[in-house]
Amino acid sequence: VANTQAICTSFKGELLIGSVHQLGSPTITSRTSLTAPTVDTIKAALYLASATINASTTAYSATGEVSGTGYTAGGVAVTNANAPSTSGTGALWTPSASISYPTVTLTTSFDCVLLYNSSQSNKAIAAYTFGAQTITAGTFSLSMPANTTGNALIQLT
Amino acid sequence: MKHHFEDTPESVTTIHGVMPTSALVKKTGIDSDERADMHWVEYRLKGDPTDTIVHRSVHGYLKQGLSLFGEQGQMN
Prior knowledge:
By secondary structure, chain A is mainly beta. Helix content of chain A is 6%, strand content 43%. In chain A, a hairpin with a 2-residue loop joins strand 6 (85-87) and strand 7 (90-93). By secondary structure, chain B is mainly beta. Chain B has no helices and six strands. Chain B has strands spanning 11-14, 17-20, 24-32, 36-45, 53-62, 66-68. In chain B, the strands form two sheets. Chain B has a three-stranded antiparallel beta sheet, with no helix packed on it. In chain B, strands 1-2 form a two-stranded antiparallel ribbon. Classes of the chains: A mainly beta (157), B mainly beta (76). Strand 9 (123-143) of chain A pairs parallel with strand 5 of chain B.
């Protein structure tokens, strides 16, 4: 088993359904209110190298998630201030800040972060993999790529 | 690119609590592949024959966004 980097297939379908995910700054009204803009809470959970997170993942699950001192199941909230934008013929979105897990001890190797929508039944968005790591009484953090064409974390082209 | 942990703080949190880095041996490295550059730092106690890591932090730089391609079908 292994984690595989991918945009989750269920997320693609939910984009066509519409009004499921609202990423970025709250600029439009959504399914929960006809008058007040809302924004979803996006979270990032870490998964062991032995887990199986991939395009078929439909929602956050604690199965295969890391555990250890200082880590809360479900992970951390992602700073979600970048409104999705368009560039040329594409559209893109990237979290507006690094993802950080401060003062944790994670002794079993992990190599995957799953972004999911905790405001919408924990529906999965995308998984990103990296070289396996452990943390000892330290901080694990991830810097985001530039929110530009060819770099943004999620791109529709 | 500058190593994320190039600068050494005066103290770090370890498995033994907060310790001055002057009492520790620092080691840094980068695990790099096409997906990410993972900058790591490890601290060990000076003179510790067991070579136990008392602190390890990692900062990753994701390199690749993911794309989904929209394709227009056709009406026959």
